[in-house]
Amino acid sequence: MKSKIENIAEYILYLWQMEDYLRAFPQQAMSNTELMELLDMMHAEGIVHGGHLQLAQNALSELEDLHDDLVDTEAPYRAVILHLQPSLVLFKAKTDRPTMSDVEACLTLLYQVMMLRLQQKEISPETDTIVKDATQLLRFLSKTYYDNRMEAN
C-alpha cells in the first residue's frame, strides 16, 4: 500500500482507486491479502456501493487541517490557492458536492482526470492547466505533511 507519510495525496488517491476497483471486481480480492483487508473494511463501514473508507477520510481531514494552517501562515501557498480558487469554484459547481473543501476538490479533480485518461478520453488544455495547478498544491501539501512527520520523529 502507498505510504501515507511518504505522500499523503497519493495515498488518498490510491485508496479511492482501490475502492472503485474492489466495487467493480470484488472477486479479485480473494487472491490478495491487502485487497481482502480493504474489501473487509468496506463491508464493515458499509461503503461497498459508494463512499470512502475511514482511512481515506481521516487522511483527507489531516490534509485539510494542514491546508488551513498553511493558508494562514504561508504567503506562497496562499498565492497558489488564490490563483486556483476560481477554477475550483467552477469545478465544484459541476459536481454533486459543491460544498466540498478545496483540498477534496483538487483530489477529486485529479482522480476524475486520471479515470478519463485511463479511458483514453480527451482532456481540454484548460483542464490540463487546472490539473497542473492542483498537482502543485497537493505536492506542496504532501511534502509539508512529510516534513512535519519527519520532524516529529
What does this protein structure show overall?
By secondary structure, this protein is mostly helical. It has one domain (8-152). The protein is built from six helices and no strands. α1 crosses α5 (102-118), α4 packs across α6 (125-152) and α5 (102-118) packs across α6. The mean pLDDT is 95.
Radius of gyration: 16 Å
* General form: globular
> What profile does the largest beta sheet have?
none
> Which oligomeric state applies?
single chain
Number of strands: 0
Helicity level: over 70%
Mean pLDDT: 95
- Separate helix tally: 6
In total, the number of domains comes to 1
Helix- and strand-based class? Answer: mainly alpha
Question: Keywords for this structure?
Answer:
153 residues, mainly alpha, 6 helices, 75% helix, 0% strand
Strand-helix topology:
Layout: H1 8-24, H2 33-45, H3 54-73, H4 75-93, H5 102-118, H6 125-152
Helix pairs in contact: 1-3, 1-5, 3-4, 4-5, 4-6, 5-6
